[in-house]
C-alpha cells in the first residue's frame, strides 16, 4: 500500500527536478565561462530561454507528421519520469519499485529512439546525420551504463536504486575497487549521453561535429523549449544517478522528516560540486573526432566490466 507521505515525497522530487534542472545547466555554463576567463550569461539564462521559447510560435515543416509534434512531449515525459525514479531527496518513492535500474536505462533509450525518429521525420540531411550519430552513441553507452549499475547492484544485491542507496549508506565507509572502476566508466558515459566535451559540444552548430544539436534543428517555439528542458532534465538525472551510486550520504530515509530537511541543501551542494567538476573536465579537454567516440565508449564499457570482474574476484 502506498502511503500518502510517499506520494508527497515523489511529487516533491519531480518538482525539484523540473525546477532545478535548468539551474544546473546554467551553473555548468557559468563555470565554463569562468574557467575560460569570460563573464558568461548567468546561471538563470536557461530560465529566460525557456520563457522566451514558450511564448514563441512553433513553426513546422509542411511534411511534418504527427510524430514530429508528439516527440517533444514524449521525451519530456520520459526524462521527468526518469528523475522521479532516481532517489534524490528520499528513498521513499512509490515509483521506484515499479521501475528498477534496468527499466531506467530502457526509459532513457525510449526517449533516444523517439528523438531520433523525429529528426529523420522531416527528411533533412542534418536530422538524419544527427539521428545516426545519436543511435551510435546510445548503442555503445547504454551497455556501459548497465554494467555500471550492475556493479553497484552486485554489492547491494538489488537493482532498485532506493535499495542501493539504503545499503551503501549503512555500510562502513570504505573504498570499493569495483565502484572505483564503475565511477570512471560512469563519468565517461555521462559525458557522451549528455552531449558534452570531449564527445560533443553543446554550443556548436558545425555539421561535421554536432550530434545533439543536429537532432533539434527543425524544432522551434514550445517544442524546442520542451526538448531543451528535457536535455537539462537528462543532465540532472545522470548527476543524481552518480550521487545515488557513489555519494549516497545525505539522502533521507522513509519517515525521517529531519533528514529530509537536510537532504535539500545536501543535494544542492553535491550538484554544485558535480557541475563545477563537469565544467572543469570540459574546459581541460578537447573535442575528439567523431570517429574516436566508439573507442571512447568502448573503453568505458571495458572499465565497467573490469569493475564487475574485480567484485567477483575480490568481493568488494
Please specify the SSE layout and strand pairing.
Blueprint: H1 4-35, H2 45-54, H3 66-85, H4 101-121, H5 125-156, H6 161-170, H7 177-193, H8 212-215, H9 221-246, H10 257-284, H11 293-314
Helix pairs in contact: 1-3, 1-9, 1-10, 2-9, 3-4, 3-9, 4-5, 5-6, 5-7, 5-11, 7-9, 7-11, 9-10
The major sheet is characterized as: none
| Contiguous runs where pLDDT drops below 50 for at least 5 residues | none
**Oligomeric form:** single chain
Cα radius of gyration in angstroms: 19 Å
How do the helices and strands follow one another from N- to C-terminus?
Answer: HHHHHHHHHHH
**For the terminal residues, how far apart are their CA atoms?**
35 Å
Beta-strand percent range = under 5%
The backbone outline, from C-alpha atoms, is globular
Structural class, judged by helices and strands? mainly alpha
For the structure shown, list the relevant keywords.
mainly alpha; 11 helices; 316 residues
Write up this protein:
With 316 residues, the chain is mainly α. It has eleven helices and no strands. It has helices at residues 4-35, 45-54, 66-85, 101-121, 125-156, 161-170, 177-193, 212-215, 221-246, 257-284, 293-314. It is globular, with a radius of gyration of 19 Å.
Give a short summary of the structure:
The chain is mostly helical and 316 residues long. The chain has helices at 4-35, 45-54, 66-85, 101-121, 125-156, 161-170, 177-193, 212-215, 221-246, 257-284, 293-314.
